[in-house]
Each structure stands twice: as structure tokens, then as C-alpha cells.
Amino acid sequence: MRSADDDRSSGRDGPRVAIVGRPNVGKSTLFNRLVGRRRAIVDDTPGVTRDVREAPAQLGDLAFTLLDTAGWETAGGEALEARMRRFTERAIDTAEVVLFLIDARAGVLPLDEAFAGWLRKRAGKVILVANKCEGRAGQQGLAEAHGLGLGEPIPFSAEHGEGLSDLHEALARYIEPMPEEEDDEFEDGEGAEGPSEAELAKRPLLLAIVGRPNVGKSTLVNRLVGEERVLTGPEAGITRDAIRVEWQWKGRQVRLVDTAGMRRRSRIEAKLEAASVADTLDTIRLADVCVVVLDAANMAEKQDLAVAGWVIEEGRALVIAVNKTDLLADDRSAASKAWRKLRDRLEASFAQVKDVPIVGISALNGRGVDRLMPAVFETYAIWNKRVPTPKLNRWLREMETLHPPPLANGRRIRLRFMTQIKIRPPTFILSVSQPEELGDDYLRFLINRLRDDFGLPGVPIRVTMRKPKNPYASRARKR
């Protein structure tokens, strides 16, 4: 089972292995089985997977990059199914090994035969996998698979994990086993406290692109990487899985994650859409920086603020990207009013996170996109900022003098000590003589001054109050 940290950084990518087949044969179930956790959304509805999803996988001593693809169909032109097919075919062209799945229970269908004929001409290393072979239900389909001309089929059950040893044997013909000394990067050096800050700095920055449906998230990802890496189109809700794209920006490793659009919970009815939203929320929890994409025509709708609120609640660094700003170019008065409304709503909704960076862009024509990544890395640096304890306590004494804490039962509340215990986001502990009496207003004052005086704009700041221990309490108990 892979951990969350494995998602953020994997030292072993290895050969590319693509899982292909017609819709609803169990490709995503096999993908999740080999990756070791639920990474792709699985549903009985055909055509759930639309993009090509990648993840590091391991089977015994074989390590490789696994690709989950959309169901192959014979559609042509510019229909969504045709665009999905082109992405699948491109994944096949870049893969060293292809796992061709059929549904043994359903038997070999004409679409299987058509795809097999296409694979014989285009792909070199194809492993035929007859999925859903548990019990006797798939025996007929397994026998029919011999006629596809792709060699001996492997009887398999992705749902139950049957046939993994046979699949390992087939993959071992094309993939070299890992040397024994290549153990997990943090297996010995990383204790219960997790990786050190130096180790975290070497990992890719995990940048999640989130927002409502059809605001241009996938178009922005393609614009940033400079090629068509994720599926786009006029249809709302094309992206269903969170799609990771490895990228470099000015020599810095970045893992871009394109996510499904998030509608209001009251409008989420289908189980499939609920799974997509849950996948997006998981991505936000793991991200370093989240870019919330808004539509310039409808800035700061209630759902936009809800998405930004989830990012802040999870303690992630936040950048706002207002897409389609070219639509505002003709009416400067309307544009100025829209920008002012956006800033006012952000300030009113998120008083605890002031001065969130806002970048106007057009993902379609590239206008303003060059300003987005500098804002991302600047916010990321602030999110990782640490304030020295001596400096912090000199500041605390100054705050106590300039704006004394309130009285509680006729006694002055004392601010004893303050220290930063965490970064990502900046997290502080404040030792207070009577924490329950300090009040939210004074704590908010301290956080706002902390943000202004130490240069922490646009990121969540967390302050936990603690009451100092009484050094004489143990003596009193002994008496």
C-alpha cells in the first residue's frame, strides 16, 4: 500500500506500461490493484475514465509507470469519444508494454477484435489479459481470446487479485527487476515524525488546479506545460479523475494536478460525480499550493468562495487565477467593477487569510499566464517561512505594550511565550496565563499583526493557545 508521501514523490518511474481495452472491462480496477491504492475512479458506468492517468506502480520486484486509459472506441471526428481515443492511442505510442484487457465474462466482442487488429499493427509488446475470470463464468471468453492473435491470454481477476503471479511473469520478459539495494527512499532514514524539511525541499511542488466546472482548468494545465496533456473541450465536466502531469518550471520540479470541477453539494446527485469531488478534495489535502480558477464572467460566485474555503481550511497555500479576462477587455468600467467586487468578497469571506494573490489570465490565448507561476512560488515560499523564536518573542513583548490584552476578573492576562512549531502552513503556539479569557478579537489582532510584521500575506496562519504549567503544582501535591 502506497502512502500519501509516495504520491508526492516517487524515486522509481521505470518503463511505461499502458492498460488499454474497450469501455468497462476493468482497466481502472487493474490500475488501482497495481498502484496499491484507489487512484482511479471505478464505476459500473461505461466510459468513466476519459484522460490518461499515470502513477508509479510495483509488482513484486518490477517497478514501472502505469497508465490508465479511456475505453477505446471507433468514433471519429471531433466528438468527445474521438478525442478520448486519440489520447489513448498516444499513450500506447509512448508505452514500452501494453496490457490489453478483455472482459472474459462478456466474451470477445467485435470492438475487442477491432482493437486487437489495430494493436497488432501499431504496438510491439502486447500482453493479453482476460479479466473477470474468477470462478467459471469467464472460461468461454478465455477460450475465445486465443483467436485475437495476441498470444496466450492471462486469466485474471483485477477485483480479487487473482493471476498476479502470471502477470508478473509476463511483464518480467520486458521489464528488468529492481536491484536489491534500491529500497524505499525514506524507509530507514524517515522515522515517525516524517521527512525533514531538507527532504521535503527536494520533492516536486504539488500544484493543484481546482474550481467550478468549465472554468478552464484543463486548458490552463495544457497552456502551462506547452502541449495537450489533458483532455479539453466545450463540454462541462470532462475531467473526472485527478490527472497528474510532471513538469519543470525554470528548473524546479512541479507536479501539476488537474481536477474535476466542484459543484455545490446540493447539486451533486450522481455517485460518479460525488466520487470525482471526493477525489478533488483528496488532492487539495495533499497539495502544496492550490490555484483556484474563476471565470471572469462570473467572479466570486458562492461556489468559488466555497472551493477557496476548502483550500484554506486544509491549510494549503492559495492563489486565485481569474480566467477568460480577455472577455472583459472591451468594457473597462465593468472589468474594474468586477475586480473590486472580487477583492471585497474575498476580504469579507476570508478575514483570516488577507492579501491572497490574484492573477488575471486567459488560458486560451496565454495572456497573463506567465505571471501565474511566479505568484505560485512566492506564495509557496511564504507558506514555508519560519520566524525565529527570539525575534517572535521580542515582537510579542512589543504587542503586549502597544495593545495590552484585556482584563479577566480584574487581572491582566499575560502573554508568556510564543514559538513557531510548524511550517506548511505557519503554525504557532502562544503561552497565555488565561487562554480561555483572551477572546477571539485579541487573537485576531495578533494574527493580523503577525502577518503584517513578518511578511506572511495570503497563507493560513494557525495559532494554538496553551496555559503554562504551574511549577509549584507538584510540590503542593506532595504536601
List the uncertain runs.
Answer: 1-12, 182-195
* Dominant shape: elongated
Our count of helices gives: 16
Name of the CATH architecture of the largest domain: 3-Layer(aba) Sandwich
- Average pLDDT reading: 83
Report the C-alpha radius of gyration, rounded: 27 Å
Q: How are strands sequenced across the largest beta sheet?
A: 2-3-1-4-5-6
What is the class of the largest domain in the CATH system? Alpha Beta
| Alpha carbon gap, first and last residue | 54 Å
CATH fold-level assignment of the largest domain: Rossmann fold
Structural class: alpha/beta
Q: Give the number of DSSP strands.
A: 17
Q: Give the helix proportion (percent range).
A: 25-40%
Strand proportion: 15-25%
Count of the domains: 3
